[in-house]
Amino acid sequence: AQTVTQSQPEMSVQEAETVTLSCTYDTSESDYYLFWYKQPPSRQMILVIRQEAYKQQNATENRFSVNFQKAAKSFSLKISDSQLGDAAMYFCAYRSRRNTGKLIFGQGTTLQVKP
Amino acid sequence: EAGVAQSPRYKIIEKRQSVAFWCNPISGHATLYWYQQILGQGPKLLIQFQNNGVVDDSQLPKDRFSAERLKGVDSTLKIQPAKLEDSAVYLCASSVRGMAYEQYFGPGTRLTVT
What we know:
Chain A is mainly β and about 120 residues long. Chain A has strands at about 5, 10-15, 20, 25, 30-40, 45-50, 60, 65-70, 75-80, 90-95, 105, 110-115. In chain A, the strands form 3 sheets. In chain A, strands 2, 5, 6, 10, 11 and 12 form a 6-stranded mixed sheet that branches. Chain A has a 4-stranded antiparallel sheet with strand order 3-9-8-7, with no helix packed on it.
C-alpha cells in the first residue's frame, strides 16, 4: 500500500522569504501523480501544484515549485517570495494511475508566515 | 462556475444519534468523493462514486456509515449511530471523469460528537 509522510508538522517563514516543505512517499509503482494541496483555515482545499511521475522536469506554478526526486521518493514544495496569504495547512498527496483516482494524503504541514 | 456545495457546515450531536451530510458537486462532474479528515491528519477516502455507482468503499465503516448518489448528481453521507471517534471534518470532492483530472473540494462539514 502507498503511504505519504510529511515530517514537518509546523513551519514558519518571514514574509518575502523562501520556504521548503518536505514530503516523502512509498510506492512500488512507477507511474503516478503527486500533488500539493493548500487548506487555509476554515476554507476549502485547493490544488497548488501537480507532478506526473513520468515527467523528469519539475513542475512550477508562479511562486510555487517542486523538487521531485523519483529514486529517493521525495517531493518537496518550495514557496518563493512568501506572502501572508500563503499561511495555511499544506498537504502532500499521491495518486496511482492504476487505481480509481483516490488521493492518499500526508499528515499535513502548517505554514505560518510572519510579517 | 459554482463550486462544490456542502451542508450543513457545522453539526454537533450526541453519541448514538444519527446525522446526514449533503453534497452537490460541480455541474457535469461524474466522479464524487467523500473524505474524512480527523483533526491533525490528512483526509482519508471513505467512498467514491462514478455517476451513481460505487467505485471504492473499502474504507467506509459499513456498520454505521452509508452513502448514496441517486441520479448521479448530489450525494448524502449518513452516520448511524455516531461514535465519539467520528468527530471530524467530512469533505466532499468532485472531478470530471478520469483520473487525470483535478479534484475540487467543498468547504466541508465539521462534525462534533459529544
